[in-house]
Fold this sequence. Notes:
The chain has 509 residues and is an all-alpha fold. It has one domain (12-105, 118-252, 326-495). The protein has 24 helices and two strands. It has helices at residues 2-21, 26-47, 69-77, 79-84, 87-104, 107-115, 121-134, 141-156, 161-174, 185-198, 202-205, 214-240, 249-252, 257-281, 299-302, 304-323, 329-341, 344-362, 365-380, 384-399, 405-422, 427-440, 451-458, 467-495, and strands at 50-52, 60-62. The protein has a two-stranded antiparallel ribbon with strand order 1-2. Strand 1 (50-52) and strand 2 form a beta hairpin. The termini are far apart.
Amino acid sequence: MIQQRRSVVQRSLDAIEQMGNKLPHPITLFFIFAFLVVIISALFSAMGIMVEDPRNEGEILTVKNLLSADGIQYMFTSAVDNFTGFAPLGTVLVTMLGIGIAERSGLISTMLRGLVTSVPRQLLTATLVFAGIMSSMAADAGYVVLTPLGAVLFAALGRHPLAGLAAAFAGVSAGYSANLLLTSLDPLLGSLTQQAAATYDQAYAETINLAMNYYFMIVSVFVLTLVGTYVTDKIVEPRLGSYDGGIQAEEVNKLKPEEKKGLIGAGIAFIVTCAVLALLIVPEWGPLRGPEGEIVNSPFFMSLVPVILIMFLVPGLVYGIITKNITTDKDVADQMSDTMATMGAYIVLAFAAGQFVAYFNETNMGIILAIRGAEFIESTGFTGIPLILTFMVVAGFINLFIGSASAKWAIMAPVFVPMMMHLGYSPELTQAAYRIADSTTNIITPLMPYFAIVIAFAQKYDKKVGIGTLIATMLPYSIAFSIVWVVMLVIWLLLGIDLGPGSPIHYTR
Length: 509
């Protein structure tokens, strides 16, 4: 009976993959999306669609017509900025410079070959999912570091690389809100929650701390790691089937003396690099600390991309020099150039995606959609758990169209935080519910900025991978994470456990 149910699930995912892959190439699709935004903006503008902006009382938001004279002027004058300002572009390219040296010098492949002899196979998936969840400490760097490394690691073990990519992507993106430590997301969302709560109860808002969801998110790390491991091993990898392109076990066990010496040198270089970076961060006088010595939202968090570049580059250089894969500065330049040459398809895709995202934001269509969704929930008249679940469904739906967690919360918090407070639920609970809905749907929307780069990584192993393939692969994670996380929140709600330090479930004046 269980096998039959699994067969139905597998057939459903196959159908989703087939339908999705009938869509045009992602580059073409983003150009089509951009064109549709232009046409729809003209229609909605002519229809006079407008909403009141809850962030600015009395301000009316209308749809900007991109077929108007001003709109056409905007499309022509902003095209370059839309491309260069596309958020993942610089992050990906700069990070790949360092990863490219570590990869082409042979460091990464040698590390993997050594790793597979020391890490128990049964713990690999859990380790990868856990690392993905924890990578939110490095903002968005996990997308461009862990997802390709997950694929390479699985391939080295003879497992399907797309399963490794999926496990890492699930941890990085669907588990984005969970962490054992506070991340930059906590003060980012927390400040908006405080501001929204102040409109209903100024005194209570002053008691809210930015770590309001900390306890809940700590427990979430371990729960999601278990769920992600199960989904990878029992659903995703069996569906993908066998993979024949990995490094064989006999090859893995053979590390040459110079490779072992190179690994030792790279390890020492990594430790020295970390020590030097620590001098910039740990002491109170550290130049990468915040103005009052704070770490969260400090220059360190704002400079994680060059930090990652350095942490890959230095050990990669040392390894290459020791193994004589790098003998002159020309070798370094060539290896970096070769890495950038492989990113050509992504750069083209970034241009198309950048235009679409910019057009969608410029027309106000995303904001209006979010506000309409908020109004819908308010009109249902739901209370209690049904209200919270409805709120999460709408927040997740909106996330399919607007990728930025802070942008959505800036729109939704002024509506839902006071509304929930009026019904007896704390701002801390409302924010936790939002974070769950926002995270779990990241991995199934092509409009998430890093969705494109994940497809590019996947196509290194299977040229036929398209939007449908990735969505079908990630959908089990999205569903499983959503169900388990919602159950966790309901249990938290029923037991009345604090979500964080001094952060109750229920609101009382």
